[in-house]
């Protein structure tokens, strides 16, 4: 997954392990109901959508596949280490989210791992998705976590301006 510094109006492509384009990701600016991020296959069909919940005390995002909500990602308060709760598939995040080096697991083991690729042009991330897992769901959840991080950064910047 390659992207520049994240932006809601960003458009980037997700590639597979042999550098073939698999998905495009497009963000909407603020719209009624919150910000949205669309994941599309290479024919332009939307395969997943991430939507921000407005008027929420904590950053909260929903993942939709085929119009059905399949996951909710919320950052919980923690003094030592950020904790993310992924409701729906009942997945758990472990590792360093801020360094883009983490793993998502379920009761059967690893679901997806994400690592920042350091020797690349621009921001690039390597995803490894377990064969038993729907890659659209895994990609959407990883993108939703990225949205939570972006929302936190926006909130911190706004607080600094006050």
Q: Can you identify the CATH class?
A: Mainly Beta
- The poorly predicted ranges are 1-8
Number of helices: 1
CATH fold-type name: Porin
SSE blueprint and pairings:
Layout: E1 2-3, E2 11-15, E3 21-27, E4 36-41, E5 46-52, E6 60-65, E7 68-76, E8 83-87, E9 91-96, E10 101-106, E11 109-117, E12 123-129, H1 135-161
Antiparallel strand pairs: 1-12, 2-3, 3-4, 4-5, 5-6, 6-7, 7-8, 8-9, 9-10, 10-11, 11-12
Give an overview of the whole structure.
With 162 residues, the protein is α+β, with helices and mostly antiparallel strands. The chain has a single domain, classed as LURP1-related (Porin), CATH 2.40.160.200. It is 17% helix and 46% strand. The chain is built from 1 helix and 12 strands, in the order ββββββββββββα. It has a 12-stranded antiparallel β-sheet, with helices on one face. Strand 9 and strand 10 form a beta hairpin. The radius of gyration is 15 Å and the shape is globular.
Throw out a few tags for this protein.
about 160 residues, alpha+beta, Porin, 1 helix, 12 strands, about 45% strand, globular, disordered N terminus
Give a brief outline of the structure:
By secondary structure, the protein is α+β, with helices and mostly antiparallel strands. Helix content is 17%, strand content 46%.
């Amino acid at each position: 997954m390659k992207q520049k510094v994240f932006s809601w109006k960003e458009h980037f492509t997700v590639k597979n392990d042999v550098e073939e384009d698999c998905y495009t990701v497009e963000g909407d600016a603020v719209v009624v109901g919150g910000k949205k991020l669309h994941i599309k296959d290479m024919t332009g069909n939307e395969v997943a959508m991430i939507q921000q919940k407005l008027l929420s005390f904590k950053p909260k995002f929903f993942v939709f596949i085929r119009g059905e909500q399949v996951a909710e990602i919320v950052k919980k308060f923690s003094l030592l280490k950020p904790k993310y709760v992924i409701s729906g598939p009942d997945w758990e995040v472990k590792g360093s989210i801020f360094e883009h080096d983490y793993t998502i697991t379920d009761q059967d083991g690893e679901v997806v791992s994400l690592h920042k690729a350091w020797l690349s042009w621009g921001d690039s991330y390597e995803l490894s998705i377990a064969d038993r897992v729907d890659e659209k769901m895994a990609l959407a959840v990883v993108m939703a976590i990225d949205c939570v991080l972006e929302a936190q950064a926006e909130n911190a910047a706004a607080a600094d301006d006050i």
